[in-house]
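Milestone 3.1: sequence recovery, worked example.
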């Protein structure tokens, strides 16, 4: 019975932020001690260590001791600390700097619902106090309490406290935040943390613990449309177990067995057959906050990063161009024409800065519309161009489905929220593809079974170049070489499509540009069908551009495509994987391409 009660206790996630040395760690340590949430004997152990080392005890040491960092004297990484009151369980996320704060907030480690902002009563409002406030506003956290800490250092002066409250209230109001309350506290002395202070009789409102318990947990997450970013697809083969489990964390909404599910941006659909949870009883349903897996009635090929949505509910946005508010923290500026990576949910895509709409200094809210790059600590409203479409929701619809980070050189440099989905020139292609996937009649033979049977993976080898290049000779030599090895391979010249599938538009002259794009789309759709059958497909086409390649990638899974430019002179803007130079013999080139296919795992590589 006691176990059942523990299972139904409510949980709330809180982020605590503030300028360096304003006392966040001390307040966390005090919360742990005053709620009896420390491991047995930990408080006494830390006090004894301080005594042995002739150093005064500080409650901040409790947090450092839990993280095994007390000897270093500093907090070097973000921490997730657990404590509980009679009302609920808490996870409090200590964010010692901008990078760690955004990393926790955006990547989903915290999913914070509320925030404590800490300001040193002696130092007052600092730039980082404003920046953290702006970041919290930008990330859509509404339940906020401001703790004016170290009141003991100003002799509990009410007038100095009121001055800080007035200054910070004005700033928060300008960025659209109305805090639940301000609380004068001393983390070191314990004033107004768990009980009202006798040193501040002029303050008679709630303590920190009381305000936390008074925060109303958002219940509407379950009532919002179902969203689950796919974090992984797992297959079990032991003991005849043939389940393929699609795993992730439910961000919002709920599902049950029998619900029809659509995955975006691909548009593929199926029906939930079972719901799986690790080390838990079988269940027929699951809701927001749960880490789950589910199996499907009809197996479909989906990838990590797609978003599972219920067919009966509102669709997410899908595009490769977004309007975003970002907070930049990289030492090097965020600049145009450089490739970065954007991570949202479980998907990571290449991204470029297309346009800066405006830049806001988060410390004073001054607006600059003239800057050509985003500097460190700037808040900017930008248009970002992704290398492929992603699925998401806007910040005012489902906050967690709009939060992202920007990565450069494997480090998080910035983060923010998506404010709007902008049109891109390949939306018409994606609409065709989503409708095709939605209506697709699936074979009972799964792609993996074809790969096992044929001893190969399906792939599209795209040979392009100038009119006089040896594309076709190389393609036919490659086809013959792979065929002799027993591979399922097919050569398709674009002319085969132009005068067959495209015969209805080949002779139309009204709009050559539109016809050209439609030719490419149809070529890609034919390729998709052949790839679905498990073949290695070799296609030749003259002078394909990057825009042509993007159309093909919208139709065919990009990881299946290898693009090769044939010729010394590159006459288009296409980004290719390999280049074949003139005077290279087709047979030798075919052998080189075969080796490449072995290296990337398309065909078997002998030991």
């Amino acid at each position: 019975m006691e176990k059942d009660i523990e299972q139904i206790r409510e949980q709330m996630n809180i982020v605590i932020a503030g300028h360096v040395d304003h006392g966040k760690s001390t307040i966390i340590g005090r919360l742990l001690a005053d709620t009896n949430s420390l491991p047995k004997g930990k408080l006494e152990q830390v006090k004894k260590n301080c005594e042995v080392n002739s150093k005064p005890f500080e409650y901040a040491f409790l947090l450092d001791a839990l993280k095994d960092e007390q000897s270093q004297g500093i907090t070097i990484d973000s921490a997730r600390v657990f404590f509980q009151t009679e009302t609920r369980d808490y996870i409090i996320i200590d964010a010692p700097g901008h990078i760690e704060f955004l990393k926790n907030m955006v990547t989903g480690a915290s999913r914070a619902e509320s925030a404590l902002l800490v300001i040193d009563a002696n130092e007052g409002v600092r730039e980082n106090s404003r920046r953290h406030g702006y970041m919290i506003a930008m990330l859509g956290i509404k339940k906020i309490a401001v703790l004016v800490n170290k009141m003991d250092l100003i002799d509990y002066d009410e007038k100095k406290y009121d001055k800080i409250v007035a200054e910070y209230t004005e700033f928060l109001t300008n960025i659209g935040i109305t805090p639940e309350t301000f609380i004068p506290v001393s983390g070191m002395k314990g004033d107004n943390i768990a009980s009202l202070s006798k040193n501040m009789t002029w303050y008679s409102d709630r303590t920190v613990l009381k305000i936390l318990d008074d925060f109303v947990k958002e219940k509407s997450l379950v009532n919002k449309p179902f969203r689950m970013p796919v974090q992984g697809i797992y297959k079990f083969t032991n003991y005849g177990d043939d389940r393929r489990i699609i795993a992730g964390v439910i961000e919002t909404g709920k599902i049950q067995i029998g619900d029809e599910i659509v995955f975006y941006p691909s548009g593929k659909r199926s029906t939930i057959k079972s719901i799986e949870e690790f080390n838990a009883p079988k269940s027929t349903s699951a809701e927001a906050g749960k880490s789950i897996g589910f199996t499907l009635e009809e197996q479909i090929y989906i990838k990590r990063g797609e978003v599972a949505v219920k067919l009966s509910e509102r669709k997410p946005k899908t595009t490769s161009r977004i309007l975003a508010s970002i907070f930049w923290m990289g030492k090097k500026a965020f600049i145009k024409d450089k490739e970065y990576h954007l991570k949202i949910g479980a998907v990571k895509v290449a991204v470029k800065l297309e346009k800066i709409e405006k830049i806001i200094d988060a410390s004073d809210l001054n607006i600059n519309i003239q800057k050509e790059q985003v500097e460190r600590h700037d808040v900017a409203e930008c248009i970002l161009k992704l290398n492929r479409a992603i699925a998401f929701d806007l910040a005012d619809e489902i906050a967690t489905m709009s939060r992202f980070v920007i990565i450069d050189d494997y480090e998080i440099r910035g983060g923010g929220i998506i404010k709007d989905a902008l049109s891109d020139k390949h939306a018409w292609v994606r609409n065709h593809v989503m409708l095709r996937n939605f209506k697709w009649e699936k074979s009972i033979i799964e792609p993996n079974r074809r790969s096992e049977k044929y001893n190969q993976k399906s792939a599209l080898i795209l040979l392009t170049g100038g009119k006089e290049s040896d594309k076709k000779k190389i393609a036919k030599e490659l086809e013959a070489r792979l065929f002799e090895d027993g591979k399922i391979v097919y050569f398709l010249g674009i002319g085969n499509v132009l005068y067959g599938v495209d015969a209805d538009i080949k002779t139309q002259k009204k709009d050559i540009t539109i016809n050209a794009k439609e030719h490419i789309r149809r070529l890609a759709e034919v390729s998709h069908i052949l790839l679905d059958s498990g073949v290695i497909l070799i296609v030749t086409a003259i002078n394909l551009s990057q825009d042509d390649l993007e159309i093909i990638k919208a139709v065919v899974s990009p990881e299946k495509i290898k693009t090769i430019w044939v010729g010394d002179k590159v006459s288009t803007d296409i980004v290719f994987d390999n280049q074949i130079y003139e005077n290279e013999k087709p047979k030798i080139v075919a052998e080189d391409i075969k080796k490449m296919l072995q290296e990337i795992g398309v065909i078997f590589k002998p030991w």
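The chain has four domains: 2-214, 228-310, 317-428, 445-599. Residues 299 and 443 are 9 Å apart (CA to CA).
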